[in-house]
Design a protein that fits this description.
Layout: H1 2-7, H2 15-31, H3 35-46, H4 51-58, H5 64-103, H6 122-136, E1 140-141, E2 147-149, H7 150-153, H8 164-168, E3 173-174, E4 187-189, H9 195-203, E5 208-217, E6 228-238, H10 243-258, E7 265-272, E8 275-286, E9 293-294, E10 299-309, H11 311-316, E11 325-332, H12 333-341, H13 354-360
Bound molecules: phenylalanine (PHE).
Length: about 375
Amino acid sequence: MQEIARGITPASQGKEHWQELQSMVREIAEKIETFEEIEEMRVLTLGKKSEIAEAMKRLGQVPVDHRKAIAQVLNYIKEDTSKIIEERAGLLKKAALNARLEQEKIDVTLSPRPAAQGTVHPISQTMEEMIAIFSDMGFAVAEGPEIEDDFHNFTALNFPPEHPARQMHDTFYLPDVPGKTGDEAKRLLRTHTSTVQVHVMKNQKPSIRVIIPGRTFRSDYDMTHTPMFHQMEGLLIDKATHMGHLKGCLIEFCKRFFEVETLGTRFRPSFFPFTEPSAEMDIGCSRAGGELKIGEGEDWLEILGCGMVHPNVLKNCGIDPEEYQGFAFGMGVERVAMLKYGIPDLRTFFESDLRWLKHYGFGPMDQPNPALS
Ligand code: PHE
């Protein structure tokens, strides 16, 4: 490259000299195989610091009667060199494109690969099934925020201040709301869907009949706990609701959900600050040989928490407990899905392992895409 640069001097003025130079430039250009090198050649021969550019600058010093002729020759050299370089660059470009096309060639005779289709996640499927059963009983779906304040998660639900039950929930707290203090400032991820009972009762006049599916959060992680899980809450408020309605509704639900008409059920006294009386519901099962079978045997399995809505909760939400009463229940969606579909480890629900999803998921998977066949 230096050779050309050196060759293009004001001394190379004659026509023969110029033609000789041109073939030298061509010879060099033809040996170039990369864009980087051709670019380098362009800079060396035509750039601001090239001999031609220098010669152009010196034109002013040339006697006037020679100036025109020299300028002409310099311009020819410049144009020709530029043309040769452009030609080579064009050729390289074309070759590169051809190489790429050759590489990316698609075989149009190949048959299309079937597009994999996803499946319905067991949690979605279970929620749909639950909603379908409760809809038949006249329940509507209600929803509420996942980020809550202390009032909706605890205070309105009759958790006394500093009550140990507040600690029982292993709450995830968020930074305090700026400019506020005390309970008002506390923001948290709801630990149960019972928070939405409060929203619904504050915004809706009885009678109320809602189910509340949603995500809940507690700082817990083992075979049967994940920090995020789902609950299905139920709330019914009316003038003459009693424990019998609660039991009838939940027994009917469990029989339909587990598809066992003769399913045994029992209610054990329990405690929740927001229900009085409170109960836990068990369903009959067998654990013979280490295998869990629902609806068989003499054993019991806890399935949900429930009770009559505490008068304090009704008051906190602007409902007169003298006039209205109702029941509420809450159950873990993962828990009932695990029982119904024999899924042993709760954590697997959220690991996004395709093999697991394919095994436990619902609906089509790996079916040929009808649009392609
Ligand atoms: N919120 C309770 C829990 O998360 C369940 C529950 C709901 C109990 C409604 C009674 C009534 O454990």
